[in-house]
Amino acid sequence: MTFLPPLQQIPASIAAVSDYEPFARERMTPQAWAYMAGGAADELTLGENRAAFQRVRLLNRVLEDLSGGHTRQQLCGLELDYPILLAPVAFQQLAHPDGELASVLGASAMKAAMVVSTQAGISLESIAEAAQTPLWFQLYIQPDRDFTLALVRRAEAAGYRALVVTVDAPVSGLRNREQRAGFVLPEGIEAVNLKGMRALPPAIAQPGESPLFGSPLLEHAVTWSDLTWLQAHTRLPVLLKGVMNPRDAARAVEQGVAGIVVSNHGGRTLDGMPATLDMLPDVVQAVQGRVPVLLDGGIRRGTDVFKALALGASAVMIGRPYIHGLAAAGAAGVAHVLHLLRTELEVTMALTGCRTLADIHRELLVLPRAGR
C-alpha cells in the first residue's frame, strides 16, 4: 500500500481543523491510524467528548468596547499568548517521520507551550534543544522508582518547566480498534526515554486465573503516596492529568498540586465515562480557584476553547487535532492548526463582547436543559 507524502503547501480547502483529518488518514498506515484515532472499547466516551461541546450554545453580546483586546494568560509560571497547549501524545513518528521534533517546531512558531510525552519516540533532551517555546514533561510514574527519579532529573536539567503526571491509566484501556487493526509499533519507533528501565516480569494468566488482579502491574500501580514521594523529589510544579472526579480534584489540591487537567485520556482508557466538558464545572467548583484547571478532550473549534474557558478552565490542551496537522503537513500543519484555533477563539470573543479572557463567563453560554 502506498501512502502520500506530507503536503508541501497547505491547500485552501483546509479552512478548519477538522479538514485535516482526511489528509492525515491517507498519510498514515491503517494500524497507526487505529492507534491515534481510536478510543477504548465501543468508543462511547470518545464520541461524548465531541458531543458535549455540540450541546452547548453561545450567547452573543453587542456594542461592547473591544479596544486593547488580547488572549494572554498566566499559567503555572508561564506567560501564554493564548490558552491553548499541545497535549502529550506518544509515538508521533507514527504520524510523521520527524515526530515530536516537527510538533515542537510548529508550537515554537506559534508560541504555544507543548507537553512532551514520556512515550515520545525522540529523546526529551533533543526535543528541548529544538524548542523555542516552554515545555512541560508528561510523566508516568514507573514501577522502577529509581528510573522515574532519573527521568525527572533529566527533565529538570533539560529545562522543562513542570511535570504533568498522568494518573488515569494504571492499566491500558481495552482498545479494540487497535486490536482489530493488529497494531504494533513499527521497527525504529520506541519509547526512547524509557530505555534501560527495569521491566516487570511478564504475567500471563492461566485458564481460570484472574487476568489482572494480583498481577505485578497492579501491585505497582501509582497511589497518592507516590505523588507525595514525587513532590518531595522535584523542584518543578506538579500537575495531575486525568482527574474527572471532584473528590479526587479536592484531594489533589490539598496535597499541593500546582494544577489539575480534567481529562478522560481522550476516551482511550475507561469507556463509558462522561465527557470532560460535562465534568469540568464540578471539578472547578471542588478546586475553588486554588489552582488552575485545564481541560482536554474533544476540542476541534475555537468556540470549543471558549466554552471550556466559560465553564471555568484556565486553558485547554489539544491532542488529535495537531496530530492530524502533523501527519498531513509536518510542522507547518501543527502551526496552522494552532493558528486556526486561536483565530476562531478571537472571533468568538469579539462576537460575544469579550475583550480579554477574564470577560469570558458562563452567562455567555446556553446550556442543555435537564430532560431535553
TrEMBL record:
Entry superkingdom: Bacteria
Database matches in Pfam families: FMN_dh
Active-site residues (renumbered): 265
Cofactor(s) this protein cannot do without: FMN
Listed GO MF terms: FMN binding; oxidoreductase activity, acting on CH-OH group of donors
Keywords of this entry: Flavoprotein, FMN, Oxidoreductase
Enzyme class: oxidoreductase
Binding-site list for FMN: 88-90, 117, 138, 166, 241, 296-300, 319-320
Binding site for glyoxylate: 35, 140, 175, 263, 265, 268
Enzyme Commission number: 1.-.-.-
Domain FMN hydroxy acid dehydrogenase: 9-370
Record-linked PANTHER family: 2-HYDROXYACID OXIDASE 1, S -2-HYDROXY-ACID OXIDASE-RELATED
UniProt name for this protein: Alpha-hydroxy acid oxidase
